[in-house]
Amino acid sequence: MGALTIFWFLFFTSLVGVLTWWITRRDDHASSSGYFLGGRSLTFPLIAGSLLLTNLSTEQMVGLNGAAFTDGLCVMVWEVVAVVALVFMAWFFLPRFLKSGVATVPQYLEIRFDHQTQVITNIIFLVAYVGILLPIILYTGARGMLDILDVPSLLGSFPERLNIDPETFALVMIVWMVGIIGSIYALFGGLRTVAVSDTLNGIGLLVGGLLITYYALNVLSGGEGVAAGADLLWEEQKDRFNSVGSNQSSVPFGSIFAGIFLLNLFYWTTNQQIIQRTFGASSLAEGQKGVLLTGAFKLLGPLYLVIPGMIAYSMFAGDDIKADKAYGLLVNRVLPGPLTGFFAAAMIGAILSSFNSALNSACTLFSLGLYKSAKPNASEASVVRSGKWFGWIVAVVAMTIAPLLAQTTSIFGYLQKMNGMYFIPIFAVVIVGMLTRRVPPIAAKIGLVTGFVVIAVGYFVSPFDAIVASVHDFHFLGMVFAWLVILMLVIGEVRPRETEFIQEDAKAVNMTPWRYATPAGITLIIIVIAIYVSFADFSVLLPKA
């Protein structure tokens, strides 16, 4: 890597930091509303930019392209179905969250059920963020940077003189560097700082991601142009350009209507890390516009999250490489030297975005959900300070765990599997809480604990893990979700609340909806169906002769 690459890397990384500080320097970082919700002042461009980049991080760039390297176009289901989930967020979930004036999902469950439900949900979220989400963000980011910038070669013989494997040393070094920088963003700046830096980085990552596809197609064609590369890719992998996943793929077609759709629904409607910036919307209309604009951007997702992985398959399929290394190797192979620093800076921005967003959410859950509950008379400064201290502890734990994930076969598959343990029970409780008025708090508590335990046992305890493996993970999650909903509804019939739940308007923001929310949402769903049908070949589901 030349001096020019290093210069552009440092230049773009520093530019985002300086611009973020300049834009947010006069923000309120002292009060809990200012720190955790950006003072409820976020407009739709910031909401869309932050939503997109919080999602569009290295676990997507590296992980989903790695899945495409293995399975082909069918893994685009994670991007396509996400658009439908975002429409539901704008139409159904966001109005209810904003009307209640909450800062976290557990706070909403406290209003709908009781304080104990809020505490249980907080604990599940925090355990999942610390043990699953944050380490995966750091690991995938470091994995991508290793291959894009060839960091081990930059270190020379230094790791070997310490009797340490160069790749392991570089991985740990990048994990701690990114973790510390991301912690500074999240813990000193608050939500609006995170949202602004996300938006700035998002522009760079979108441009960079599309450039990778452009240059990769050109290289694939031997320099004869993008169109020639696309034609060659189609001819070489015609059978892999299928939106329908076979039963042997990581996303069998039937699982779309079970676990995959439920995981997407939770992720875009109930996952604190993602939706916290929508809670900071200045009005319902701004929030809806931001969410639906994110959906429109997600339609472009396969161009930079799936196609590069398929191009990598054409280039490296015979080289016996690990799927999660495919994207980094592709970038290193096709990107012109002067642009490598720019893309590396954009990748660092993506890692920082997801990391500091998840860390900010963890601090919010702890401070407003647990600390303030234990000390209801605590001052605003004390609440914010508790979040910062907790954040540093969480960051150190995550940075310690992250390098251990190098042993996983597919980091994207591992992420979705682990997510199911807390996505499914929390989403089941939220949806029952929103759609019913008589289901009591005891049903929510039983649903949360039972769901988490059942999924964990199904994944890790013999002989139950063999049973789960026989029906596919995503079908299993769909069955657990249906069972939890039925269980809570039965409890609601046997021991209903004494009075019906009525949601009151907290008057936190203007609740006038965006006049075009319904037609915009319908348009997005129609486009999704058209994309899916255009590449569908259902013959892969037929028994082989």
Oligomeric state of the chains present here = single chain
Distance between the termini: 52 Å
- Number of DSSP-assigned strands: 0
DSSP strand content = under 5%
What low-confidence regions span 5 or more consecutive residues with pLDDT below 50?
32-36
- Radius of gyration equals 23 Å
- The portion of residues assigned to helices is over 70%
Could you spell the SSE succession in H and E letters? Answer: HHHHHHHHHHHHHHHHHHHHHHHHH
Largest sheet: none
Number of helices: 25
Mean pLDDT: 83
Shape: globular
Please identify the structural class as seen in this structure: mainly alpha
Topology diagram in text:
Blueprint: H1 3-24, H2 32-37, H3 44-55, H4 58-71, H5 77-100, H6 105-112, H7 115-149, H8 151-154, H9 158-161, H10 166-189, H11 191-220, H12 226-236, H13 259-269, H14 272-279, H15 284-298, H16 301-305, H17 307-316, H18 326-334, H19 337-374, H20 380-401, H21 411-435, H22 441-460, H23 464-471, H24 473-494, H25 517-534
Helix pairs in contact: 1-11, 1-19, 3-11, 3-14, 3-15, 3-19, 4-7, 4-17, 4-21, 5-13, 5-15, 5-25, 6-7, 7-10, 7-18, 7-19, 7-20, 7-21, 7-22, 10-19, 10-20, 11-12, 11-17, 11-18, 11-19, 13-21, 14-19, 15-25, 17-18, 19-20, 21-22, 21-24, 22-23, 22-24
Question: Can you walk through the features of this model?
Answer:
This protein is an all-alpha fold and 545 residues long. 74% of the residues lie in helices and 0% in strands. The protein is built from 25 helices and no strands. It starts with a helix and ends in an 11-residue tail after the last helix. About 1% of the residues have low confidence.
